## 1
Amino acid sequence: MSLDEAGLDRMQRQLQIFASELNQVMARERERREEAEGALQELKNSYQTMVRTLAMVCEMKDNYTRHHLDRTYQYATALTRRVAPELVEDVRVGYGYLLHDIGKIGIPDAVLNKPGPLDDDEWKVMRTHPLIGYQLVTGIKFLGSAMEVIRSHHERWDGRGYPMGIAGEDIYLPARIFAIIDTFDAMTSDRPYRKGRTVAVAMEEIEKNGGTQFDPDLVDAFIKLCTDLKLVGSDASGLTVVR
Amino acid sequence: MQRRRVLVVDDDDLTLDILRTILDLEEFDVVTARDGEEALGFLAADRFDIVVLDVMMPGLDGFAVCRRIKGDPQTADVPVILLTAKDRREDIEAGHEAGAEAYLTKPFSPLALIETLNRFGLGRKRS
């Protein structure tokens, strides 16, 4: 096609319209994208708040576990970062750590806060909490894999744990991680009927149970984490920030 | 959802290219014709959802093509959008007399074209 002067002029006016409409469309798209991103962020924040609220309700009910939640969440996240960094990106894993004991809502106070060791029947009741928790959150779609942490954090590497008695790598990795952290925190925390043990004693106990109660590779990584963080000789229950 | 078919008639290659690009983006199947005779041939052979029609073309002009479309019971219900540099009042009236459903002037606004397609229920976001 050859363009004479009138043709050039027509083309120029056509292009001006295109340019101006392109700007309009792009501005509209940008606005829409910002709105969508804002809504998504808001939704994520709501999830975060909801999970934390749920977890806090649980913590309030359980006198023993004051600050247990913060500590275990942070230790578990630190260990996860070392052994499976890609899982740290998955918020659902974090949700699982925060909500691991959500099922304790269903445990009677007389058992949950008994000022002394539990008898056999009481232990039976206590051991229902992973399944109660699992059932509570089933159907909350966005929690996804968090449910596996809730259900499986009392499973043992050798298959002698509960509620399902699964073993080895059949146990969801974050649940295996959390089992170590949970035990460590329980041992180093004070209970109404006994003082918390020292970090060194707790580490020794965890190490001894590698390959039976715990995933031996994770135990190695955990010991190294404690060493790197110079936890020995410190009061682990006082540490709440681990990055 | 079935894609909508549009017939675009213009003797100017650049205009055809521009319209094809826009209508592609709007997810139409686009068929192009360079003159009125060719357009009527396509219309006789195939079903189209809408026609975008230039007026000033060699041979049959757009008004004549439009009258033929509207005069044939096979094609009378296919909406016709005239898209032309002829922007005087009597041109627009001639367009409506020829039976065209819409009249857009060149240089044309792509947004106005899309809006017109929407008006005929042919927009991308049909229910």
## 2
Amino acid sequence: MISFYDAVERLETGEMLSEHEFDLRVGRLARKYAKEYGIKMEPDTVIISDNSLADAAYQASLRLFVELGVYCINTGRVAKFTEDEVKEAVAAAPRKLEFGEGKDLVYMTPREVEDKTTPCVNMSMVGTPVPSSLFVSALQTYAQEPLCDTISAGSLLELDGRTVRSGCPIEVEAAIFNVKATREAAKRAGRPGLGSHNIPQGSAEKTAAIIAAMHPEFGVRKNDGALVAALGEMKVDYERLNKLAFLEAAGYHHGGLYGPLMGGYAGGPAETALILLSHFFLGRILLHAEWSHCFPLNIRETCNSTPEMLWLVGLSSQALTRNTKLLYTMNCFVASGPCTEMITQELAAHSIAATVSGGHLNPAAPARNKYPERCSGMEGRIHAEVGHAVARSGINRTEANVIVKKLLQKYASSISDAPVGKKITECYNMKTLTPSKEYLDLHTKIKGFLTDLGLSF
Amino acid sequence: MTSFQELFDAVIKGDDTAAAAITKKLLDDGIEPSKIINEALAPAMAEMGKRFERLEVFLSDSLLAADAMKAAMKVMEPSMLLKKSSAPEQEVVVIGTIEGDVHDIGKNIVATMLEASGFEVHDLGRDVPVATFITKAQEFRADIIAVSALMTTTMYNMPRLIKDLRDMGLKDKFKVVFGGAPVLPEWATEMGADGYAKDFTQAVAVFKELKR
């Protein structure tokens, strides 16, 4: 497999190109390969059952990646890689990852399409801003969830009254706080061995802060992970590759992080699916991703619970699952906020699409990931329980498609005006860290609805 | 005689070669640049903006259309210099993603939409230091400084721009607009921004409002 530094060398010697021209090339090539391989969304199908379409998407994305390459914003050059190099990198990916220790030790292994094996659930506050006074408690609401396999924190708004800003010394302190808070939340939840898939990063963007926080005395463990992002679309930069160089040398788990925008440079759902898949090749070659974490988003709605985004999630998951043993999680972004009926429906639809298609789960970013304190473990619970129910019930993709369409009938027309929901302090008892009756009732209601449609909880 | 409709269609299709050729013919026929802009280029970009809002077209299509419009504008440059009066008065915007933040797709869309709507746009790129926003705004005699962020942690670098402008006695010289996924309108106001755009669909209207 091509070494990391050989790959970086190509970023410094490849074709020089303006970024604008590369952006246009992304759209042109995505369109070309989507057309050539007949990748398109059919109106009645949200969750595809057509294996040949999934395989065609995989082949199309492989050719797309080989022709397009990866743009480096520091050098203004395009690195190209051969099909054999891609295949080698994909084949060399780990087939099993462990997180945590003791009774909280979990393994992530590849799943199959329509697999009865339950998905691994990486629960996360994603980037939801949370003040330091609530930080540990909010994180504990995730850690205490029985189906939570790993956790990661949100974004720290302030520390000791000081605003956390990227690139300032306070960012280093915030990243360290983030690690300590993650361990403390797990300990308070009675799960001290619980691992983190992205331990320092919720509050830190700069590499210096990440490296500082990964010092073992702050509580990080060798089998904790950190995610390294590709830039949209199909780009890398040295700030993030520097992070990778450290994580790899120090022996921490490192995953790839990709969030292509549907409606953006790639184009529509089919083209964006191909670009998402191409990011996995970028991830294996340039980020040495042991697993990948995806959050494709609708550019206007900034969520992935719309019909075409669920189609994209299903198609790309099936393409990966059927053609590789790559490990990956699908990160759920929903339009509505906590403690609304709509969020229970959005979470369920995304979880069904990802799980039946072979993915692992990463709940969740409520209220378009925008509103402070609007996140809680209950979103993780709903997403995880639905995913486990899908696997245990053994439903197939056709059945999943029927259920997801029924869910979409309930919420799709409200996506643009989705309610922002309640803050964690408004939908949890913050002393006992238990959800409010209102939220528990909504949880019961969605499970009842899905039970009637064939899922067993 | 070549019609405005042909130029409109060329821009919609993102055909820069055709857009340039049609524009040249229109100029040769004695049409004023301002009329070409008002009758074909501006309506075409406005139409692309509407289609993009509905996601009937995508960013890649909008970029191609913007390139076609720029190709047409380039052809008209000499005529516009000769007849300065025919060049519409442009509001000057410097735009960039704030220090620490490398995510620039949203900012790029807004820059494209502004340019298409008649603003003179100077795109400073991503990860732009606060000091650079200020020096470039002065250099280009900007009317508006537009700042974007995608991350909460980088968003908090945005108020520094306002503070530095105030400390330098420059705040009244520029309007400042905040935007980006994590930015909320009440926060932008509280931090001292003059405008806030929820997303690219809102941005042009907000900038036009500030222009008044």
